[in-house]
Amino acid sequence: MDTNIHEFQTSKPRTEADCFMKSIGVHSCLFVVQILLALTGLFLPALDTWAGETVYIDTPNLCSKVEKTEGNRVYLLSKGDCPKTQGKVAVPAEEKTSELEIYVNGEFWKNQAVSRFSIDSLSEVNMRGDTLSRTLAIPENPFKAEGEKRAKVTDDFFRSGEFQRRLTVEQERLKREIFGSKIQEFYQGSPEVAAAMAGELPTNERLYIFISSSMQGNTLRNYVRDVARLRDPNVKLVMRGLVGGVRFIKPTMRFVSSILLKDPACDPEKSRCERHAAGVNVDPLLFSRYGIDRVPAIVYARNVSPLDTRLSEGMGKNATVGDSYTIYGDVALSYALERFRSETNSQALEPMIRILSAGFYENGKSE
Fold this sequence. Notes:
This protein is of the alpha+beta class. Helices cover about 40% and strands about 20% of the residues.
């Protein structure tokens, strides 16, 4: 069906220790402690026969045991396949001993300075920590003011409309170029939702912008720029015929080349000029199918089903079309899309509108 507008046509806290004790029980906790003592080599029963004080030395792995001690020499036994993770073991030492020689399986391993430790040390450390926490003064950060100032600038920029528009455009680009096919697979039961998530029209929808060489250059370049931003194969620029007639191809080539230039002042014959990634189709049959009698005109067609994609979708026998909506006049493509969305409630048009509304990307910055 065809219908007109503008003209428009419409064809939550507990401590970890508390939770841990309640969850595993006291007996389990004792068992865990016993395991930890074994893993660190603290074989407490053996210490009953030791004289002097007890110190702790390194072991090459968690399976090492004390074989014997002679003066300042400690002999360890290490057997079996054991993880190569250093542990600790308690050994007797004279009070004046400052260094121990450690042997493993009869071979010298290393010298180690004596590190004295007792359970009472834990209490002393805690008391010192409490004292320090009350008296320790942290110096003022000399960069605090500048840091806060710069943090505010960064936060303001992140929240600005400009950056958010840039973010939106980049999100939509990633959807289309990186995740497009995966999104289509995931939402294969709903083509319209899949297309909206991917930032493209569904495969059975089309957006045609009908143009001619008689239109104003700014209008043409705006449409070309917007089509290049969308990067959707189902959004197409269409001309009725060749400029100057079917016998002349060069005028059409010059015309198309000129409207694709990002900088209209650039001369391709004198320098290398950047062009928008867009194409122009010459298809008079599409003009006829949608009844386009003047330009510019923008058509949104749904339920398009071509038999042969190599042939024109304007051929009645090659393609069937559901409903279509047309807007005439020199209007922005974003405006036309908003009107189409309002009329059809199409989800697929949402990301396209967001992309075209991102003003930061004027003058081709999105390509």
